[in-house]
Structure prediction request, 361 residues.
Amino acid sequence: MTDPGISVVICVYTEDRWEDILAAVSSVRAQSYPALETLLVVDHNPALKDRLARAYEETEDVRVLPNAGPRGLSAGRNTGIAASHGEVIAFLDDDAVAERDWLRRFAEGYADPRVMAVGGRTEPVWASGRRPAWFPEEFDWVVGCTYRGLPPGRVRVRNVLGGNASFRRTAFEAAGGFASGIGRDGDRRPLGCEETELCIRLTRARPDAVLLIDDRAVIHHRVPAPREHFAYFRTRTYAEGLSKALVARSVGAGEGLSSERRYATRVLPAGVARGLRDALLARPGGAGRAGAIVAGVLSAAGGYALGTLRARRNGTAFAPVPVPEDGEPIRRGAGPEAGAAAPARAERTRGGEPARGGGHG
Prediction:
């Protein structure tokens, strides 16, 4: 197996997740395939940045740096990409912990030079200790986790899921960075889809690119108590509809909704049928799961309709931005060239020697 150097980027924004952040970093440092470095990118929170800097001041493999762009997850990720040294950049949520072989599975995926991205499986850790009876597995993406309907094993996909994903550095050189104006922004409305838009843009720039999900690359993602309630479910599905409208406006509905059509016409009807069957068999939560699927579809459809109207009236609300050279500020995309590839970077090194390339199998 080839040995690509992997940098891990963890974007953080609040001291409320202090223990979670420490646990995430510890899980990276315990990997069977060691990370080249871990970068903690702090989103416009000087107090948190200073506290983390003190916590890791004597740790050579962990670096703390401020988000160099506008507030939000996309700019934070772009900051991490620009500051990293690995040939592969992996992203881990700040409230998740990775299993010991997480990076090893990613590295194996890059043995094929065509592979530009590898994602993994994200398992929910419910605050209450168990999945709410009404919460359908088909909607686990609502809480940032792998959902029923994704194919098992190591398979080719349209897009990876951002909280458990990795990209080859050349992917960003070809397609630019994560788009600003889409995705999470602290505690604001829980938008998403920034990784979907990037992956579609990447395959347009590199038609030969292969994107994979390997369900052996596992992380465990904490689901706080408020996200176990239907109010959050409804808000998140509505926000997803808004996000999908932006993506469809940017890349076209054909590519922007290709996976969603199969999900809506096959996976969700099967989920409703399963819930109704469970209700007839007097199994707990069956009717609730069926109803939640229907409600989630309607909520997402409403968000998509409104988002489409807004996008038509106002134009696309975000633009892809190039990943800058080290030391340069993150630029806000504003024109046709906003998604252009970033300039080629100097060859990265590992331990003073060239970092070795790799791909998948």
Summary: The CA atoms of residues 173 and 265 lie 36 Å apart. Residues 183-187, 327-361 have pLDDT under 50 and may be disordered. The longest strand covers residues 210-223. DSSP finds ten helices and 13 strands in the chain.
